[in-house]
Amino acid sequence: MDVSRFWLIxxxxxxxxxxxxxxxxxxxxxxxRVPMHQLIRAAGHAVGGPxxxxxxxxxxxxAEINDRNKAVLLAHGRQDLEKRVERxxxxxxxxxxxxxxxYPVLQRKLADEAARIEDDYKKCGEVPPPPPDWVxxxxxxxKIKSGSGELATSILEGINQSINRIHDKALAEYxxxxxxxxxxxxxFMPCWRAIEKTLGQVDKNxxxxxxxxxxxxxxxxxxxQIVAKTDKAVHALTVSALTQFGIALLVMMVAIxxxxxxxxxxxxxxxxxxxxxDYITASLRTSEVAALVIILVEASMGLFLMETxxxxxxxxxxxxxxxxxxxxxMWVALTLLVTLAGIEAALALMRDMLIQDKQALxxxxxxxxxxxxxxxxxxxxxxxxxxxxxxILPFALTFVAIPLESLIHSSRTVFGALLMVLARAFAxxxxxxxxxxxxxxxxxxxxxxxxxxxxxxxERAAKGARSAPGRTDTSVITLQxxxxx
Length: 485
What we know:
The chain is an all-alpha fold. Helix content is 82%, strand content 0%.
């Protein structure tokens, strides 16, 4: 018997058997229509409902993360602005103490110069005394007739000579008086220049104070926006945090490169000190770990030095120390840092010597030439350079504490914003998936009705035939159960 034909009711008529089976299956599906609809809808709600609930939870979590990020960002921005305003006020106090304390001297100097100018001006205003009153005499002489005789002529000639002498003398005195006034006016120039210089200094000082006052006004406007928790302030602080994070990350990458160079500089000589054949693990040498520990200790001493100088504030305990204890800690950290830098310089010298010994062992034929090159000043340049590099790198890595602090403070905002975006994205995906599943369940309901379309058509036709003419039959409308939205 053929196993593939066991389902045939009439083996000799496969088409008729298939038709009969289709009718039986359709009848069964029609009988199970309502339960299957409920099952499909229940399955859609069972899968899509939790996804929608998870989406709402993620959106609520994203809103909470946003509120926390906003609170942290505003608090950090407020502290930063308070420090900047404090520094601006200190700068203004310094300007006032430095510049305004000299204002009494400047005022006295300006008063003296003004008094001198006023005295010189009064002197310039003086006119020479008027000439003698010989106008009447001239009038009287003018009445004498020219033909009166030799006596009148001689008298007139004498009067003429006297008048010419008096005129010349008056003109000379007048010119001398004007020369004196011109000399006094020339003396005005140093006074005017001194006054101009003094006023320029005053203007410069006032301009500096005005610029500082404008800077304080701008900072106070930003502070008011932060206190008011405006969106503009939050956006500005977020952009500033992202910028600081990018710059600090770039500087940290440069510092990591310097650390790698420092590690390669002392790893080889450390293998001679702790043993080149000593391994902690199968691929990790003890010398490498020792070199890394030295570099980390140097970084720690540099960080403590920055903390004691109050350049960074990563450790509040150090900042809260008394000035005496803080200075002692600063000198201890500086001494250890200088000592470790000296050790690195010695290790760099030892590294160059080890490299030369290995080259001498490998190339014994050229050992004489290499020794001659090493004894010259040209051959000592790499050694000196390595020693300087080993001594300077620890101090250069000390300043990594500044971008490290900026990176730590800005990473809270950056990662918080990133986490909020990811939460919203996952919430949106879950919401889309939940809606897709619910819509899929509705599509499956309609597909199920398509499979049993023939029994449904027969049912509707029978109900339509039984309904009275002119009467609306609402039973057909209630065939489809109401779907939940």
